Amino acid sequence: MSPDTTRRSDRSRRAVLAAARDLVVEVGYPRLSIEAVARHAGVGKQTIYRWWPSKGAVVLDAVRALSEDETGGITLPDTGDLEADLKTVLRATAVEFGDPALSALLRGLYAEIAVDPELAMLYREQVDRPVTEAKLARLRAGQRAGQLHPEADLALCLDLLYAPFVQRWLLRTGPLDAAFADALVEATLRAFAPVGDVE
Amino acid sequence: MSPDTTRRSDRSRRAVLAAARDLVVEVGYPRLSIEAVARHAGVGKQTIYRWWPSKGAVVLDAVRALSEDETGGITLPDTGDLEADLKTVLRATAVEFGDPALSALLRGLYAEIAVDPELAMLYREQVDRPVTEAKLARLRAGQRAGQLHPEADLALCLDLLYAPFVQRWLLRTGPLDAAFADALVEATLRAFAPVGDVE
Amino acid sequence: MSPDTTRRSDRSRRAVLAAARDLVVEVGYPRLSIEAVARHAGVGKQTIYRWWPSKGAVVLDAVRALSEDETGGITLPDTGDLEADLKTVLRATAVEFGDPALSALLRGLYAEIAVDPELAMLYREQVDRPVTEAKLARLRAGQRAGQLHPEADLALCLDLLYAPFVQRWLLRTGPLDAAFADALVEATLRAFAPVGDVE
Amino acid sequence: MSPDTTRRSDRSRRAVLAAARDLVVEVGYPRLSIEAVARHAGVGKQTIYRWWPSKGAVVLDAVRALSEDETGGITLPDTGDLEADLKTVLRATAVEFGDPALSALLRGLYAEIAVDPELAMLYREQVDRPVTEAKLARLRAGQRAGQLHPEADLALCLDLLYAPFVQRWLLRTGPLDAAFADALVEATLRAFAPVGDVE
DNA sequence: GTGTAATCGAGACGGTACGTCAAGTCTTGTT
DNA sequence: AACAAGACTTGACGTACCGTCTCGATTACAC
C-alpha cells in the first residue's frame, strides 16, 4: 500500500515482531536486545534497523500487532446504560492487562515512552488515539442520552476513568479487580452527573 | 546510626547522587551510565555497586535527596477551604514538574519502575507513601469538616486527583497548567461531595 | 586460504600485532593490557578476543610476525665447517637477543609459557619446531661429514648448545657474548665428537 | 634476629606462605591474588604489603620455605664416582620437579623472573647461589680426583648439566626421566673429560 | 526470460558500558 | 607498632550490544 514498503519482506516483519514479543515476556524489556531479536527471528540485524528506528518502535509495533486482527474500527458496547457499559469495558481491560505478553510489552513501551518524546508521540497517535476516539464516542452517546452533564468535559472524564487504572497497574499499587473498576466508574460518573442527579 | 553504614563515605554518597542528577539532566536517563556517574563523581565504580543495587536505585536516591532538606514531616496547607488548598497544592506540583532536573529524574525513575518490580516497591515505600500519607491527612481533615462525603473512599479520591495529572505529564498528552489542576480538583470534589451538596 | 579467516580484517590483525610489540617494549609484558593494545591499534577489544585466545597468544603471534618476511624455509649456513658455522649462528642469535623489542616479547612469551601449557604447545609447534628442524638439519649434515659422532643424539646435542644460552639470557646470570657462544659450541662438539677425535 | 623483623608476627608470615603455596597449586600462579592469599591466611592485606614487595617475592619466599627445614648447608653426595653421583642428583631433581606444589611454585617464580629483573636478582642470590655453590664444590672435588679435565670451566659444565634439564621442564618439550638425566650427565662429562679419557 | 537493483541472512568491525576482580592505599579499632 | 578488617580509587578483565559496514545469495520488478 504505502510506497516505502514495496519490497519489504512480510515474513521478516512478522518474525521480528513475534520474536520481540516472545523475548520481552521471557527476559523482560530492559534485557531485550536487537541482537537477540534478530537471532530469534532468523533475520539480519540490518533488516531491523532498516525498518524500525529503535527498540521502542519495535515493541510499539509488536503491541499494535497484538490487536491487528481487529480490522474494523474499535467500538465500545452501547446497551443504553452508560454505567454498565463502562464497567464492562473497564473490567475487560483489567483482564486484558493480566495477559503476561501484553503486560510485559506495555510495561516496556511505557518505560520507553516516559523517556523518549518521539516514541511518546507515535504512541499517542498510533495506539492511544484510536481507542480514545472510541471511548469518547461512547461518552458522547451517553451525554446525548442525558446520562452525563451536558457541559461535561469528556476528555477529563476519560482521564478520571482511565488514569487511576493505568497508574495502579504501572506502579503496582493495588490489584486490578472488578471492585476497583466499578468504583472508578461510579466515582467518575458522579463527577459528571447530569444536573440534580444525586440520589 | 544504622550498623551497615558505619564506614560509608558520606562524601562519595553525595557526589554520586549529585553526579547522577546532573547527568540525567544532561544526557537523559537512558544514556546515563554507572561508568559516567562514577567518573563525574570522582568515585570508583565499585563504590556505587557496593551501596546501590542498580542504576534505578541511584536515581531513586537522587530524587529523595532533592527533598532531603525538608527534615520535618510533609504537611499540606490547611486554610479550612479544601478546594482552595487542593488547587494550591496541585498548581504547585505542576510548577515543580516544570523543573528540568526533577522532571528528568522522575521520568527515568518511572521508566525503571514500570519494568522493575523491586524498584517499584522501594518507590512506593520511600517516595510515594510519605506524601500520600500527608495528602490523605488533608483529605481526612476536609472530610471531618464536612467538605467530603462522610463515607468517601479517600484513597480513590487521591487517585482521581493525581493519576490524571501524572499521566498527562508522563505521556505528554497535554500541558500541566493551572486550568487543568483546577478542573481536576473540581471534578474530583464533585465525585466525593457531601450529600445534597450540588449547587 | 583457510576458511575461518575469510572475513578477517588484515589491517586490524597487523595493527594489533604492531601495537602489542610496541607496548611490550614500552611498558613491559606484565603491564601490557588487551585494553591498551586495542586502544593503540584503533581496534575494538572484541576483535582481539575474536581472533586470539589470550594475551600470550597475541604476543606469540607478534613474535612470529617479527620473522614473517622470511617467506622461505629457515636454513642455517653450511660452509662445511660445523664448528665455525655454529659459532656464527650462536653469535648472531646473541646479537638478536640484544634487540629490545624481540627480547621484551620473548621474555613475556616465556613468562606465559612457563605457566600456560596450551600456549607452550603453540610455542613449540609454531615457533620452536621450524627453527629446531633447521638446526637439526645442519647437525645432520655435519654428522654425515664426519664432524659428529655417527651415533650422536642430535636432539640432546641441540639442548646442550641452546639451553644454557637461553637460560643465561632468561635469568640474566651472565652476558650473552661471543666468548660464551664459542665456549658453548666447543664444549658441545667435544661431547659429541667423532671417535678418536681428541686433540 | 634482624632488626626489621622485631615486631613481625611469625604466625602471619607462615600463614601467608602456606596460603600462597596452596593457592598456587589450586588456581595456578597467574590467578593467584594478594587478596586471596590474605583471605586464606586470615591476614590483613596490609600485612602482606608491609613485608613483601610483590606477588613474586611472596612466591619466592614460599619456595624457600619448602626447603627451610634443611638448616645446614646443602651438600651433594660424594661417593668418589662423579658420574654416578651426578646421575643420582639429577634423577632426584627430576623426582622433585614432579611434586605439583614445588612445580607450580617454581613455574610461577620463573614466569615472574623472566620479566622482573629485581626478582631475578633475588632468585639468583637467595635460591640459585647456594645450590650452585654446592654443585660447584662437588665438581671441584671430581676435578681434583682427576675425573674432569684440569682446566674445565666448571660453571659452563654446570650450565650444560642443568640448563637443558630446566628447559625441558619449563617448556614441556619432553619427560624428565632417568634416561634423560643419565644422557645429560654422560654428554656433559664427555665434554669435560680429562685428557685422553675416551673409551 | 533475463538482467539489475533493493533486500535479505550473516556476521566482522570500532565502540561503549556492563558488572566483577584485584591492585595498592588508607582508616578504624583491637591486641 | 603491628595487626585483621574492609572501604576507597583505579584500572583491567572478558562479555554483551550498539549501530555501521561489507559480503554473497535471493528475489521480484522492468525490460
Automatic annotation (TrEMBL), chains A, B, C, D:
InterPro entries: Homeodomain-like_sf, HTH-type_TetR-like_transc_reg, HTH_TetR, Tet_transcr_reg_TetR-rel_C_sf, TetR_C. Keywords: DNA-binding, Transcription, Transcription regulation. This is TetR/AcrR family transcriptional regulator. Gene3D superfamilies: Homeodomain-like (1.10.10.60), Tetracycline Repressor, domain 2 (1.10.357.10). Residues 33-52 bind DNA. The keyword Transcription regulation applies. Residues 10-70 form the HTH tetR-type domain. SUPFAM superfamilies: Homeodomain-like, Tetracyclin repressor-like, C-terminal domain. Pfam families: TetR_C_11 (PF16859), TetR_N (PF00440). GO terms for molecular function: DNA-binding transcription factor activity; transcription cis-regulatory region binding.
